[in-house]
């Protein structure tokens, strides 16, 4: 036990502002309803502008269970662009309810999301990318850079203080939330980009944070992941495949298969007809399309199975039914480039250091996914003049705050070694590896919530390993 690092805080004493919360019945996507409270407070959209408009930051508070004495637990969604209240309605609803044994749980909607969207408009640019003609990576990036420049002007014309949508401003929102609730400190519970925000808070407002649970962590200089780390992930995926005889027979050489398919599409893109409500549309499948689709699919083992089958179909049969189905479901064919304000600005502001950018560009020349894992970053890096956070922001956090770090070995979006490196300067990190888990690891096995609960009451869980069930990598989850 490390009781000296874990103070027991009194139950939350709401301030007058938080007493104005509205009692609500919060219903999960599965139809389960619980009593909760919805609240909001106002902050400047851009604290650096004395003439900034005020915006509303919203949240839902799930009251602590009887006997809970801990600090309020603030959930920080990933993305950037994810909604805390939206997450609470989904597969993690039960976990939100469980965490109330330690304190009030706050489903926090970061500025520009969910209850805190404040009618921010999506930008639909005038820039289109041809769906039927081949194009280079540079041309593709150039189109997105042109669209981003247009969108900055558009948002300003709409009265949006887009310069206020940075991780640093979101940290100040967390501080204001804590004060609004009347809490001395808060516990941060985040995943993916939410951990990036949490790490920025650990640097800027350490005295306001009691402890943190971070999963699938993204460091402050890791907005763009290193292509070499993705290559190492593919080796781990191959090892998982090799542990299943059927999968091993189907995918004996994942890296070789991907390289063959990329080479084939680079030499001769594949014409497809994509079904839709208004009839089929032509689409030219290029190497970059597969790299982008794969970048999203490898987040978790079950979806990585889709990527494997997609490559095998093209490699062995010369057809692309799986790729066509993905395009039909997730692409808006015929539409110009559109960008979301919060996610675009947050990633642009966090940016990438010059040293890391040079490493990414060098590694991307030979990496299987090139520079597409985080598209449209780093392609958009620096596109807005005079905008963004500096290398001081990107420096790793230091301090004594207790942290639980949860890392999945088959996470294809953030990688265990990178996650631990992001927290290497923190003095008290309990690192728990979840074998076979991907990016979305909280609900992979009951042992994950169990270790979270033990950490919350002061147990030392550093070095523990959890084994999650590995799905059949030859089965498609649809």
Describe the structure.
With about 475 residues, the chain is an alpha/beta fold. It has two domains: about 5-120 and about 165-225 and about 390-465, 3-Layer(aba) Sandwich (Rossmann fold), CATH 3.40.50.1820; about 225-330, no CATH class. The chain is about 35% helix and about 15% strand. It contains 16 helices and 14 strands. The chain has helices at about 85-90, 95-100, 135-155, 165-180, 195-205, 225-240, 245-250, 255-265, 285-295, 300-315, 320-330, 340-350, 355-365, 390-395, 415-420, 445-455, and strands at about 20-25, 35-45, 55-60, 75, 105-110, 125, 185-190, 210-215, 270-275, 280-285, 340, 405-410, 430-435, 465. The strands form three sheets. The chain has a ten-stranded mixed β-sheet, with helices on both faces. Strands 6-11 form a two-stranded antiparallel ribbon. Helix 15 links the parallel strand 12 (about 405-410) and strand 13 (about 430-435). The protein is globular, with a radius of gyration of 23 Å. The protein starts with about 20 loop residues before the first strand and ends in an 11-residue tail after the last strand. About 45% of the residues are buried.
